[in-house]
Amino acid sequence: MNNVVRKHCFFFSLDSLPAVIYLSISYSINGANYVSVYSGIEIWRIENFHPVPVPKSSYGKFFTGDSYVILKTTALKSGALRHDIHYWLGKDTTQDEAGAAAVKTVELDAALGGRAVQYREVQGHETEKFLSYFKPCIIPQEGGVASGFKHVQEEEHKTRLFVCRGKHVVHVKEVAFARSSLNHDDIFVLDTKSKIFQFNGSNSSIQERAKALEVVQYIKDTYHDGKCEVAAIEDGKLMADAETGEFWGFFGGFAPLPRKTASDEDKTVKSHPTKLLSVEKGQAEPVEADSLTRELLDTNKCYILDCGLEVFVWMGRNTSLDERKSASRATEELIRGSDRPKSHIIRVIEGFETVIFRSKFESWPQSTNVVVTEDGRGKVAALLQRQGVNVKGLLKAAPLKEEPQPYIDCTGNLQVWRVNGQEKVLLPASDQSKFYSGDCYISQYSYPGEDKEEYLIGTWFGKQSVEEERVSAVSLASKMVESTKFMAAQACIHEGSEPIQFFSIFQSFIVFKGGLSDGYKNYIAEKEIPDGTYTEDGVALFRVQGSGPDNMQAIQVEVVASSLNSSYCYILHSGSIVFTWAGNLTSPDDQGLVERQLDLIKPNLQSKPQKEGSESEQFWELLGGKSEYPSQKISREPEGDPHLFSCTFSKGIVLLQVMEIYNFTQDDLMTEDICILDCHSDIFVWVGQQVDTKNKLQALTIGEKFLEHDFLLENLSRETPIYMVIEGSEPPFFTRFFTWDSAKSTMHGNSFQRKLTLVKKGSTPIMDKPKRRIPVSYGGRSSVPDKSQRSRSMSFSPDRVRVRGRSPAFNALAATFENPNNRNLSTPPPMVRKLYPKSVTPDSATKSAAIAALTATFEQPPSARETIIPRSVKVSPPTPKSTPEPNSKENSMSSRLESLTIQEDVKEDEAEDEEGLPIYPYERLKITSTDPVSEIDVTKRETYLSSEEFKEKFGMKKEAFYKLPKWKQNKLKMALQLF
Questions:
Q1: Quick one: DSSP state of residue 312?
Q2: Residues with Cβ < 8 Å from 523, sequence gap 6 or more?
Q3: Is the dihedral of CA 256, 260, 263, 266 positive or negative?
Q4: Element housing 455 (H / E)
Q5: pLDDT tens-digit profile of 909-943?
Q6: Does residue 278 or residue 972 have the better pLDDT?
Q7: What is the model's pLDDT at position 272?
Q8: For site-directed labelling of 115, which of 406, 716, 849, 968 has its Cα 20 to 30 A away?
Q9: Total Cβ atoms within 10 A of residue 758
Q10: Terminal Cα distance for the chain, rounded
Q11: What is the predicted pLDDT for the residue at 555?
């Protein structure tokens, strides 16, 4: 076994091998147990030229006399593991220790299979990615191990002065405690025994000041146990207040600050022409070429790409470990010889190059055929397995399989307009989910938020729509957003790239060929193109897709056999002749969707079912004969790992620049900024409240520019959905990427003022929650339409399955008890447990704020519930004995419930089943009953059957019934006259 380790030059000998990055692998190192996970950080300090694990309690604590190796492992959505290895060199570390850290980094990469990106980090000049691991900052301490220093022990508090620089991560450096250290450009933190002062240079930005306050909080928590005062001092304010006078008192009184003198650290790297050098036998030789292309890199060699501030080492897949070490040493000598201490050295392996590295080349193929060996990992796995360690999942992580979720309340109100020239035409409720590929549409969807009505205004561009109407659609939608004072989210969606929340809002969605707008008709007339607009009496073929009744689509396709696909169901009609076709790879649920779509496309007509492989001649004749067709399901762009960028632009938005914010949190969204969240399948442009109106109106254009530039070189489609999200009105499908605190986004003031409030008060202040806004009306209609304008119910022919919406009983509850403060749309809205069994799907137990309030009540113990909800339906005067205090929350809830007189509750003389519902006989529950039960939820008649009678009628228990697809439940209920 030891021979194997020597051959592969692993990072550790077997008796000290750590359990780096692998799930379910634990290992004992010198008596200490270490357990690794897919994602996380591991740190080693170099001691006597060997790596020694640093206790997790000391992560983020670095000593100036030491060198460290840091491994950051990230589990990607694809199931792959990404490794970033950093070696950090303290300013007082020895050259030998620094060299050992560099070599051990190369060896660790080899042990991980040769795919990690390696970074050289020098104290005071760390990369933003490295600093993002240790937010808000690192403050190295004096001392060291091998360098001869002793780690400094904690002593009496010493007054210290720090300079803070950076907008997204903060570079902190201790400077001399003297007036001469201060200047107008930077931010300084003065740490005294009883108070921490932040001095804001007059030329510093608001965002830098806000980030520096995170350093103040860190110092307060780390060195003062969270118990000291904090004061902010503004440059230019003389002795205006006591705290300003106190601050200057530490410097002997106020005096004008000297002009900032440029130190070695402040000097910027001069413009440096990019040079490519080939490393052979430890020597770097220039590569002569007119332009940089991928073809210049030989898989059998190592290269240095010198870009000035960034120096890359590219290591071919077929190079040896010694050659890689030699290239690393040559790069160190290059940096040292040209006196560039600030330059970052980044080492990349062939096939795993970073975006920044690839962007330096004029041409780089989208994908390269690189054979990646698992040899290093395989050896480690084999060695650990011999010692009885579970190595399952060692070589590769299992891909994360997640069903896409809409992350939005889908019980709101919807209005849809078709764009016709420069105007928009409101569609009736019966047509608002029927789109034409040659037209553009605008939708306004309102839904209950946590404390106010939220709006999503979208534009949908058909594939055949004309440019003039696309521009008009965006302009009209933007005016609608502006009229809400930018409190609505806005979306731009292209046909064929619709996100899950779009389909979930519409529930049933049909796309017809052709168009109805003047723009489309004029275009085909000018181009002399035949009008292929859908007609009911013509021949048409529809592909049916979706995940269920709340997310189903019918897309009209060409009437040819090659349009078929074994993974889908289809509807084919020619006048009154209707066929349904089910591919061999479809499920019963897929086939159930066809029945539902038939009720919308061809209601009241009997269809002729066709199974793949047993079709009739008439079916093939309508399609023009047989031909080959695919069987693979049409794939949509998968959601990728999210990346957050801050945006800067000039000359309008012609020159857009972005900077990635690593390991982002909600605090990185600053109210003065515009940020872009890229998750590959969707692009979110987040706009802070302090951004001026002119730039807010450019948000969607900024998103388009981002897609055009494709900064991550991920081959983004230009038709990727773009959302504009305004601070304070972030939808749940955006906030899910963060650990979200809605109170932060509703705070007043700029970023610095908000952060200062948090630091001084120690928590997010409770803001006055805005009242629910009055729905905005467009085209003279309310956005809360009447039943004819918007209804979640759909009418079907009697012999078909119906989709039901809210019941009258529910609407009464929602109207009386709606409590928006109990909603959290980051998770699926709760349901009333006692009214609807657990297995009932949300489409029948509608998601509403009233339910959240009642759920808490129903889930209390019986004794508590009895004191809150009266058992009798009769309202009797309360006795003094049971009257709660006037200000009691229970009294408030009880009085509200009594005033409604809840009929669904169990009466004193009625039986109650295990779900807490009254029980009625089947003969009284069925629709045709001569003695029907009143005051029940008519959409859930079966829930009032006893367990015995339910099993007798349905042939199964309630639990099994509610696990069936919704359409199958409804068919069984219809057969029993319970629907």
A1: E
A2: 466, 529
A3: positive
A4: strand 453-461
A5: 445 555 557 889 998 988 888 888 877 877 788 88
A6: 278
A7: 76
A8: 716
A9: 18
A10: 71
A11: 98
Query: What's the rounded Cα separation, in Å, for the pair 255 and 242?
Result: 16
Query: DSSP of 534-551, one letter per residue?
Result: --TTSEEEEEEEEEETTE
Q: Measured on CA atoms in the order 372, 373, 374, 377, is the torsion positive or negative?
A: negative
Report the C-alpha gap between 317 and 320 in whole angstroms.
Answer: 9
For residue 301, is pLDDT > 50? yes
- The one-letter amino acid code at 617 reads E
**Strands lying side by side in the sheet with 577-582:** 434-436, 508-512, 551-557, 539-548, 569-574, 577-582, 608-611
Positive or negative, the CA dihedral 956, 962, 968, 969 is positive
Q: Which residues, 6 or more positions from 442, have their beta carbon under 8 angstroms from its beta carbon?
A: 416, 417, 419, 424, 457, 458, 459, 460, 473, 476, 477, 480
Question: CA of 419: how far to CAs of 441, 468, 777, 869, in Å?
Answer: 6, 10, 17, 51
Instruction: Measure the CA–CA gap between 919 and 947, rounded to whole angstroms.
Output: 9
Average pLDDT over residues 552-568: 97
Structure-token pair, residue 960: 């099994």
**Pairing state between β 171-175 and 160-165:** antiparallel
Integer Rg of the chain from CA: 33
What is the spatial distance between Cα 268 and Cα 529, in angstroms, rounded to a whole number?
Answer: 61
Does residue 571 surpass a pLDDT of 90? yes
Rounded Cα gap, residues 331 and 303, in angstroms: 10
- How far, in whole angstroms, is CA 750 from its chain's centroid? 25
Q: What is the pLDDT of residue 651?
A: 65
The percent of residues above 70 in pLDDT, for the chain, comes to: 73
d(CA 869, CA 883): 13
Cα–Cα distance measured from residue 746 to residue 768, given in angstroms and rounded to the nearest whole number: 9
Sheet holding 283-286, edge to edge: 50-53, 40-47, 67-75, 81-89, 117-122, 344-349, 310-315, 302-306, 275-280, 283-286
Q: In whole angstroms, what separates CA 866 from the centre of its chain? A: 43
**907 in Cβ contact with 873 (< 8 Å):** yes
Nearest CA among 342, 357, 345 for reference residue 171: 342
- Preceding peptide of 965 cis, ω within 30°: no
- Give the DSSP H or E segment for 121: strand 117-122
Residue 723 sits at φ, ψ, to 5 deg, of: -115, 140
Question: What pLDDT, on the 0 to 100 scale, is given for residue 913?
Answer: 56
Residue 118: the pLDDT is 97
Query: Which comes out higher in pLDDT, residue 846 or 189?
Result: 189
Cβ contact 691:702 at 8 Å: no
Give the H or E element holding residue 104.
helix 95-111
C-alpha triplet 337, 339, 340: angle, nearest 5°: 115
Query: Dihedral angle at the C-alpha atoms of 206, 207, 208, 213, nearest 10 degrees?
Result: 90
Rounded Cα distance, 784 and 350, in Å? 58
890 or 902, which is more confident?
A: 890
Give the amino acid at 476. L
